[in-house]
Design brief:
About 15% of the residues lie in helices and about 45% in strands. The chain is α+β, with helices and mostly antiparallel strands.
């Protein structure tokens, strides 16, 4: 398993069916299941500490295991979304380094 990889994913909001207007709420991207399987072999339980980069913004965070999608989620906080002009439904590129 590589310690660094790039993904392209669509930003979605939790809960996806929330009817509240505005850009608030938790926003995520879901990692590909193949990446999940490779990471899970190295980190068999819980959250996985990572460094994430979108455009010019770099931050330390964790991948969240998500049973419903059988993958990991990466949270895109409001601060990151604002800095990089990201909205629900956007396709974004993320560089992830496993720490």
């Amino acid at each position: 398993m590589k310690k660094s990889f790039n993904i392209k994913a669509k930003v979605w909001r939790w809960p996806a069916s929330a009817g509240r207007p505005g850009d608030g709420g938790w926003h995520f991207v879901t990692l590909d299941k193949k990446l999940y399987e490779g990471i899970r072999k190295k980190y068999p339980k819980g959250f996985v500490r990572v460094e994430a980069k979108i455009k010019k913004t770099i931050w330390i965070t964790s991948l969240f295991p998500h049973k419903n999608s059988n993958s990991y989620l990466l949270c895109i906080t409001k601060k990151i979304r604002k800095a990089e002009d990201i909205f629900k439904g956007d396709d974004i590129k993320v560089k992830i380094n496993l720490l």
